[in-house]
Design goal:
The structure holds 2 protein chains of 2 kinds.
Chain A: H1 5-8, E1 17-31, E2 36-47, E3 54-57, E4 63-69, E5 72-73, E6 76-78, H2 95-108, E7 118-121, H3 127-131, E8 136-145, E9 151-154, E10 168-171, E11 191-201, E12 205-208, E13 211-217, E14 223-235, E15 241-244, E16 247-250, E17 257-261, H4 266-273, H5 276-287, E18 296-301, E19 308-311, E20 314-318, H6 330-346, E21 352-353, H7 359-378, H8 380-401, H9 435-456, H10 458-476, E22 489-490, H11 492-503, H12 508-514, E23 521-530, E24 535-542, E25 554-562, E26 565-573, E27 579-583, E28 596-597, E29 603-604, E30 617-622, E31 630-634, H13 638-647, H14 651-661, H15 667-678, H16 684-700, H17 712-719, H18 736-749, H19 761-773, H20 784-796, H21 816-834, H22 841-855, H23 864-869, H24 876-888
Parallel strand pairs in A: 1-11, 17-18, 18-20, 21-22, 23-31
Antiparallel strand pairs in A: 1-2, 2-8, 3-7, 4-5, 4-8, 6-7, 9-10, 10-15, 11-14, 12-15, 13-14, 16-17, 19-20, 23-24, 24-27, 25-26, 25-30, 28-29
Chain B: H1 8-30, H2 38-65, H3 73-82, H4 89-94, H5 155-180, E1 183-184, E2 196-197, H6 205-210, H7 214-225, H8 227-232, H9 237-243, H10 247-268
Helix pairs in contact in B: 1-2, 2-3
Classes of the chains: A alpha+beta, B mainly alpha.
Keywords (chain A): Initiation factor, Nucleus, Protein biosynthesis, Transcription, Transcription regulation
GO molecular function (chain A): chromatin binding; RNA polymerase II general transcription initiation factor activity; transcription cis-regulatory region binding; translation initiation factor activity
Domain Transcription initiation factor TFIID subunit 2 Ig-like (chain A): 518-636
């Protein structure tokens, strides 16, 4: 079928040789002071063709001392073309030229094309041996000095031994970058078993892949060697390492799981990982498959390259994910990271990919099962909110940058065959991609998996995953039969075949639409109600000419809420039909008092006075299940959006309604939003969103607004003392939904503006009072995020300074309100030095606020402060905030 | 210049002297003298005055020695004995027949010690106190007017106070820190209005950023133990009730349980856990020399 011949025949290695049993990596010296590593690797190679006289391997930045093949010295050439991409080129200094040259350089060393930086000549003495297709042993001695990537050293500059200083080193990098720290075939598709040995200081621990077989002291008893065996065939790109004076925690629920953290953080590690076993249980249950490795290790390190990195039987996390029981906001974020890492253990580490163009399957499946975990853990509302958020993101990105192609097929490598000519980089290799593109690629991959689920049902979906895992698991237990191991590699065609076998359904059109081509769909919808025929005349237009768009042909679900109930209609979107007639079920009526049945079977009383007397339509939704990767711009009357916000139970519909109501600043919109805000059964994220919409509406209605500033009385009612409404209650964050609302409302209120376009004095005083009376002494939880948001609120209240003749900003002409704000920021920022908050959230907010004051001309625009906070040695969040402020000077 | 003496004290002195002269003269008459030189009379007067003064002084000493303020008869007796006077002859001498009676000296205007201002009426003695005891002093010396304030129990005032106290402490502390250390400023021309403690990089930045401060740890312990009290805080009560059966609380309960079970397994099952990272490090194998 189509041009997918490759998968049917099974995997063919691009190399004229294969690995047999295993590969040995031995690192026998690690010098933290000099940031250097000395070691050797030993690869066992099985020639598949006669006259093999050159072996190409990947190696970057390593110094190679000596290569021996079957104990005979071998000549070798090392050449890394990516070090100087534009070789002495001075004429064509443009991005396009660089991009092409860079793609060519990466191709030249691409292991999936049989290439590599290191070319070893097989000694002539062995040529006869090779012609008989006998085993070769390649032994390479190497060292690594001050690595720039792949292996990261963290060495705090202080007194004491390296262990006392908390010095550590870990492997890191983007995609296949193991070649940065030892010579190998750096491909996700070349599997073998591993023996890994690390000799480290006796006070340190080396954590790596597979089972720790034994730990042995060296003869001087000052060092010890960690011996690891990884018997499950694994790609070199999934090999990892972390060495440091780690504290060790054996998981109390699963003794084969071990957690590692840096010194002093053990209490945080205990709390943070106490939840992990539940994630294990969830994945094992839905996949009906045991976790594939015999052990699992989590390591939390400083200066992490990414928050989460998954490798065979271990994951490396940022130490900044650790938190205590007092921290609310970080808890769900960290749990998400743990769940993501574990999903990738099954799909990404255990099951690897055949080629780069199959990456979407792995990212898609791991992202999809992670989504299922989200749904189970945080609920359907959170899940649907997340899906909507991801959908909005990918749509916005594709419309801005052009399409994201999940499964690119490359022709002869000529420019005109490039499937992504709209981009300024090549998508042929993971290393030539932009980071943002790859993030969006992963986002699209899991959304497409969800579309497949919609098509074939979740049950079949999970059966497919189970089948992939079972096949891989059988293959992994086969020893010395490397041709079977290709079952552990997933390919697009293999995956699709499995879907077709399990479900019996043809999903080709779906794959063609979303996987084989890029772009999203842009719908414009509007309607008219034909009273005579009692028909809803829906018009759906598409824009498929703008960059990043594609034409959609196929079914589209439309849900119409009428007086008599909610009705689903499936329209066929075809080439030239824009209009769709949908018959209505109910006659318009006004006087009969009857409850209105909703989609979920609920029956509710509604005040129908706002609606059009001639029409039975309450609201209309296009593609409510998000079954198309699309953007919908739909026109309906303001009262319909208001009904949708109040009565539609789907959080996505509520969020869409809130967004639409920004354009209708009327008292009715105000009332609908306030009602939602007060409704405790309503999803907290919707309520938070309503806050910001209410602020926008209030600003548009400023001349006719009556009563106190928006949200003020509600906040007072919810969070202030009954007897003295100007004083906020002492903090109690036991109810997380209230907590999030309490944090958000002041931030939104600060966006209110009066007729002079200034933040009303009343609002500023209100926020200052919240800060003044904030009392966390009796709270079980930390209030650092709440205080940080109060500072954000202060920053939001700032409006541009009235400048007379470009006068220089000095203290004397400082606006009195700004003086009050500065007083608070100064105190907060100084208190952080004495009692620092978790992740220095308050410093971050203060820096942002100071930049806002500068930008609005209240404070002299001087980047010196931000430069000092951007220096190495500050907490990473603070540095990022400071750097963002510095970068802001260029805008 | 005696005529010129006009102060009451001087007058009193002169009057007393005159009386003493009269006494000396009558005693001389009694002894049979018909006349005496003025100088002799003066000398005798002086002697008598000295003698009487000495009796008074000495008697005062005795009286004060026994912690009294008013001399009694016995004080005078002891004084006289000490001065070598035969006290027993005194009654007979006092009752002698030929003694002369002299008229009392004219009452001169006695120097009036200005009376202290009396405020209010002195309290009468209670019945159990004998009447000879001194009177109560003036009321103002012992009457007390309570001036303490009502204990502050108003919620609003308490919160106000706590807030401003904390703010003052924080402000003072940070200003002190800023004054004594390096600072940064938002305004080039001014370093004192909004002094910022200078940003100083850490050697291990993640420790301060992640670990709860000691204050927070302490607070956490306190809130754990004072949860009962918290329930009585009327301002917080509605919030508590609304969350009683909601998710977060359950979650926290399970976190606590986990901690317990974790420590339990640490203590009890340590030996049962077989984890390669807990196994002892092996001694190196002895290399055999070939």
């Amino acid at each position: 079928r189509m041009n997918r011949k490759k998968g049917d025949k099974g995997f063919e290695s691009p190399r004229p040789y294969k690995f047999t049993t295993h590969q040995v990596v031995c690192i026998n010296n690690i010098n933290f002071q000099r940031k250097s590593v000395v070691g050797y690797v030993e690869l066992t190679i099985f020639p598949t063709v006669a006259n093999l006289n050159r072996i190409k391997l990947n190696s970057k930045q390593c110094r190679i001392y000596r290569v021996r093949v079957n104990d005979l010295e071998a000549a070798f050439i090392y050449n890394d073309p990516t070090l100087e991409v534009c070789h002495h080129e001075s004429k064509q200094r443009n991005l396009n030229y660089f991009s092409n040259a860079y793609a060519a350089a990466v191709s030249a060393v691409d292991p999936d094309a049989g290439n590599g930086e290191l070319c070893i000549k097989v000694p002539s003495e062995l040529w006869k041996h090779v012609d008989e297709l006998k085993v070769l042993k390649v032994h390479i001695n190497f060292s690594l000095d001050q690595p720039k990537g792949g292996l990261h050293f963290v060495v705090p500059n202080m007194e004491g031994s390296m262990a006392e200083r908390g010095a550590h080193v870990f492997s890191c990098g983007y995609q296949n970058s193991t070649r940065f720290w030892f010579p190998c075939v750096d491909s996700y598709s070349e599997l073998c078993t591993w023996k890994l040995e690390y000799t480290v200081d006796a006070a340190m621990v080396a954590v790596s892949n597979g089972d720790l077989v034994e730990t042995v002291y060296t003869h001087d008893m000052r060092k010890k060697t960690f011996h690891y065996m990884l018997t499950i065939p694994t790609a070199a790109s999934n090999i990892s390492l972390a060495i440091g004076p780690f504290e060790i925690l054996v998981d109390p629920y699963m003794h084969e799981v071990t957690h590692f953290c840096l010194p002093q953080l053990l209490p945080l590690l205990k709390h943070t990982t106490s939840y992990l076993h539940e994630v294990f249980e969830f994945y094992e249950e839905i996949l009906t498959c045991r976790y594939p490795y015999s052990c699992f290790k989590t390591v939390f390190i400083d200066e992490a390259y990414v928050e989460v990195a998954a490798y065979a039987s271990m994951s490396i996390f940022s130490t900044n994910l650790l938190h205590s029981a007092m921290i609310i906001d970080e808890t769900p974020l960290t749990r998400r990271c743990l769940a993501q890492a574990l999903a990738q253990q099954f799909f990404g580490c255990f099951i690897s990919r055949m080629s780069w163009s199959d990456e979407w399957v792995l990212k898609g499946i791991s992202g999809y099962i992670y989504g299922l975990w989200m749904k189970k853990t945080f609920g359907v509302n959170e899940y649907r909110h997340w899906i909507k958020q991801e959908l909005d993101q990918i749509v916005a990105y594709e419309l801005k940058t052009g399409g994201v192609l999940l499964h690119p097929i490359f022709g002869g490598g000529k420019e005109k065959d490039n499937p992504a000519s709209h981009l300024h980089f090549s998508i042929k290799h993971p290393h030539t991609l932009s980071w943002e593109y790859y993030t969006m690629f992963q986002c699209k991959a899991h959304l497409v998996m969800r579309l497949i689920e919609n098509r074939i049902s979740m049950e079949f979906m999970l059966q497919v995953f189970n089948k992939l895992l079972s096949l891989a698991s059988t293959a992994s237990s086969q020893k010395f039969q490397s041709h079977m191991w290709s079952q552990m590699l997933v390919s697009t065609s293999g995956f699709l075949k499995s879907i077709s076998n399990v479900s019996g359904k043809d999903i080709q059109p779906l794959i063609k639409q979303w996987v084989d081509q890029s772009g999203v769909v842009k719908f414009y919808g509007s309607f008219a109600f034909n009273r005579k025929r009692n028909v809803l005349e829906l018009e759906i237009k598409q824009d498929y000419t703008s960059p990043g768009t594609q034409k959609y042909v196929g079914p589209l679900k439309v849900t119409v809420q009428e007086l008599d109930g909610s009705f689903n209609h499936t329209l066929q979107i075809e080439e030239n039909s824009l209009k769709h007639d949908i018959p209505c079920h109910s006659k318009s009526r006004r006087n009969k008092k009857k409850k209105i049945p909703l989609m979920n079977g609920e029956e509710v009383d509604m005040d129908l006075s706002a609606m059009d007397a001639d029409s039975p339509l309450l609201w209309i939704r296009i593609d409510p299940d998000m079954s198309v990767l699309r953007k919908v711009e739909f026109e309906q009357a303001d009262f319909m959006w208001q009904y949708q916000l109040r009565y539609e139970r789907d959080v996505v519909a509520q969020e869409e309604a809130i967004l639409a109501l920004e354009k209708f600043p009327t008292p009715a919109s105000r009332l609908a939003l306030t009602d939602i805000l007060e409704q405790e059964q309503c999803f907290y994220r919707v309520r938070m969103m309503a806050c910001f919409c209410l602020a926008k509406i209030a600003n548009s209605m400023v001349s006719t607004w009556t009563g106190p500033p928006a949200m003020k009385s509600l906040f007072t009612r919810m969070f202030c003392c009954k007897t003295c409404p100007n004083i906020v209650k002492t903090n109690n964050f036991m109810n997380f939904q209230s907590y999030f609302l309490q944090k958000t409302m002041p931030v939104a209120m600060a966006l209110l503006r009066d007729v002079h376009n200034l933040c009303p004095k009343e609002v500023l005083m209100f926020i200052l009072d919240l800060i003044k009376y904030n009392d966390n002494r009796k709270n079980k939880f930390s209030d650092n995020y709440y205080r940080a948001e109060l500072i954000d609120a202060l920053a939001n209240s700032v409006t541009p300074a009235v400048s007379v003749n470009n006068e220089v900003r000095t203290l004397d002409n400082l606006n009195p309100d700004v003086r009050l704000i500065l007083e608070e920021i100064t105190r907060f920022l100084n208190m952080e030095k004495l009692l620092p908050s978790y992740r220095h959230t308050i410093t971050v907010s203060c820096l942002k606020a100071i930049r806002v004051l500068q930008k609005n001309g209240h404070v002299p625009s001087d980047p010196a402060l931000f430069k000092s906070y951007a220096e190495y040695g500050h907490f990473v969040d603070v540095r990022i905030a400071a750097l963002e402020a510095v970068v802001d000077y260029t805008k | 210049g005696s005529k010129l003496a006009s102060t009451p004290a001087d007058n009193y002195y002169l009057a007393r002297r005159r009386t003493l002269q009269v006494v000396v003269s009558s005693l001389l008459t009694e002894a049979g003298f018909e006349s005496a030189e003025k100088a002799a009379v003066e000398t005798l007067t002086e002697m008598l005055q000295s003698y009487i003064s000495e009796i008074g002084r000495s008697a005062k000493s005795y009286c004060e020695h026994t912690a009294r303020t008013q001399p009694t008869l016995s004080d005078i007796v002891v004084t006289l004995v000490e001065m070598g006077f035969n006290v027993e002859t005194l009654p007979a001498y006092a009752k002698r027949s030929q003694r002369m009676v002299i008229t009392a000296p004219p009452v001169t205007n006695q120097p009036v010690t200005p009376k202290a201002l009396t405020a209010g009426q002195n309290k009468p003695h209670p019945s159990h106190i004998p009447g000879h005891f001194p009177e109560f002093p003036d009321p103002h010396t012992y009457i007390k007017t309570p001036t303490y304030r009502e204990p502050v129990s108003d919620y609003q005032v308490l919160r106000e106070k706590a807030a401003s106290q904390r703010r003052d402490v924080e402000r003072a502390l940070t200003r002190f820190m800023a004054k004594t250390g390096e600072t940064q400023s938002l305004f080039k021309d001014d370093v004192s209005t909004f002094p910022l403690i200078a940003a100083r990089p850490f050697t291990v930045p993640y420790l301060t950023a992640l670990l709860p401060s000691e204050l927070e740890m302490q607070q956490m312990e306190e809130t754990d133990s004072s949860e009962q009290d918290d329930q009585t805080d009327t301002e917080n009560l509605p919030l508590h009730m609304s969350t009683d059966d909601s998710g977060p609380e359950k979650e926290n309960a399970s976190v606590l349980q986990q901690n317990n079970s974790l420590s339990g397994s640490r203590n009890g099952e340590e030996n049962l856990i077989d984890n390669p990272y807990l196994r002892p490090v092996k001694k190196p194998k002895i290399r055999r020399k070939k």
